[in-house]
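Translate sequence into structure tokens.
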Amino acid sequence: MQAEDLDLAYTHLCEAMGRAGEARTPLLLAMVCLGLMSRQEALAPVLALIDEAEARSQK
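Result follows.
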């Protein structure tokens, strides 16, 4: 994905979170994550990305 496409996707996600509201945003994000994970061919890259996101969130 090109940087411009990534920016558009991020903006679209942020707007969707705004419409969902603070209370429903965790559900929205979980549904997006599950949808993206289900499109992956293998388990290993998904687990690696989860580990990376967790590590970065701890900083």
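Note: The two ends are 26 Å apart (CA to CA).
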